[in-house]
Design brief:
The chain has about 120 residues and is an alpha+beta fold. The protein contains 7 helices and 4 strands, in the order βαβαααααββα.
């Protein structure tokens, strides 16, 4: 699989099990990628706009996360569309489902070995 040549960006945090699984799988299959740590790097506005346009806030925000649960009720209730979600994500990037994998114009949220094996043929 090492002949896969598209640029791959992986957004996540290193302590996340799904992110670690994705990185391990990519390394084992000799697929190069750029890792963007959500704890130490800000998400570009253009990147977030692309995600929101193509995936929507419901798929991006992890409502089971500690970050989501730590928001006050009023803040959570006000997240009703992409626009209201955008500022919450900018201020709280760990609220995102992880990993977010970008391959050219495709976005994949989460990691599945089966899906990646198909995608990286």
């Amino acid at each position: 699989m090492s002949n896969f040549k598209s640029q791959i960006n992986i957004f996540g945090i290193k302590s996340c099990d799904k992110v670690r699984s994705a990185l391990k799988w990519l390394n084992q299959n000799m697929i190069e990628y750029n890792f963007i740590d959500l704890k130490s790097s800000k998400i570009k506005s253009s990147t977030l706009n692309f995600w929101l346009k193509n995936m929507g806030w419901v798929q991006l925000i992890n409502k089971s996360s500690k970050t989501w649960r730590s928001l006050d009720d009023k803040t959570r209730e006000n997240v009703i569309n992409n626009e209201t979600a955008k500022q919450i994500i900018i201020n709280n990037p760990l609220i995102l489902n992880r990993p977010i994998i970008e391959i050219e114009e495709k976005i994949i949220i989460g990691f599945s070995e089966k899906n990646c094996a198909t995608l990286f043929k």
